[in-house]
Amino acid sequence: MKLKTTYVFLFIACFCGQTLFSQNESIRAERFSIGTIFAPQFSNWTYHNSPKYQTIVDLMDSIYTTKDGFSFGFVADFYLDKRSSVKSGILTSLYPIETIVMIANSEDPIIPGGRYSFSGIDYFIDIPLIYKYSLYTNRRVNLFLGTGVVNKFLFYTSTKSFLYNNGAKELMNKSGDFPNFFTYFIAASVEAGIEISITERINFGFFPSFEYSVLNVKKDREITRKYSQIGLNTSISYKFN
Q1: CA 82 to chain centre
Q2: Is the pLDDT assigned to residue 4 strictly greater than 80?
Q3: In the chain, which end has fewer C-beta atoms inside a 10 angstrom radius, N or C?
Q4: CA–CA distance from 116 to each of 99, 127, 156, 160, 168 (Å)?
Q5: Domain tally for the chain?
């Protein structure tokens, strides 16, 4: 359903762009632009392993649920010619997860048994490197495709645990941790969208994107996490000569 929604957004963006194609193509005089991006993200995390850890992977798949996250940050486009540019920047992305409600039995009288659940958020620093090609461009509209890689560095994790007591959900504990920066992902990325000039130098953009991790640099007990996600990106940028 989420994937179909993305296709609908992309179709609307392209259709709206067609109504603006009343001007002839112009030679791009700008050298670069700087802007901000915000994107809700619909992600899915999977676990992969060596055969001896299959039981652990099956357990993780059965209790963990990925929630929708978002990203925001700053990017710059460096124009190579009239149709080509390279985009890079630095962003922060958040990925919430939670578990199903589980029943715990404790033999320690200090630790209560009962029904528990856990939630957490992984915080990443994203550094994209995307090549963009304009399918059509004039003074008002730019339709483009983009492809490249995104480097994702895990820099903080937060967790919470909850106890369910007589129907009430009580916070038991919360914590945070700064993991090793060598925990990171390299993801392939594709995007397509439209940019509209609000003024001579200010652009508004909308572009759905898709990412899929192709490399997880750090493994935990031979268990590797991978992710795929769809992002609905909106941007505001300022062009410089």
Answers
A1: 29
A2: no
A3: N
A4: 9, 36, 23, 11, 11
A5: 1
Asked, for residue 126, whether it belongs to a domain, the answer is yes
CB 131 within 8 A of CB 84: yes
Q: What is the pLDDT of residue 17?
A: 47
Q: Which residues contact 117 (CB under 8 A, 6 or more apart)?
A: 98, 99, 100, 101, 102, 161, 162, 164, 169
Residue 19, in any domain of the structure: yes
Q: pLDDT (tens digit, 9 = 90+) per residue, 104-129?
A: 665 555 555 577 788 888 899 999 99
Q: Which domain holds residue 150?
A: 2-101+119-155+188-196+219-240
User: Quick one: three-class SS letters along the chain?
Assistant: CHHHHHHHHHHHHHHHHHCCCCCCCCCCCCCEEEEEEEEEEEEEEEEECCHHHHHHHHHHHHHEEECCEEEEEEEEEEECCCCEEEEEEEEEEEEEEEECCEEECCCCCCCCCEEEEEEEEEEEEEEEEEEEEEEEECCCEEEEEEEEEEEEEEEEEEEEEEEEECCEEEEEEEEEECCCCCCEEEEEEEEEEEEEECCCCEEEEEEEEEEEEEEECCCECCEEEEEEEEEEEEEEEEEEC
What is the number of other CB atoms lying within 10 angstroms of the CB of residue 120? 19
Cα 174 to Cα 12, 140, 156, distances in angstroms:
43, 49, 14
d(CA 202, CA 91): 20
Q: What is the pLDDT of residue 46?
A: 76
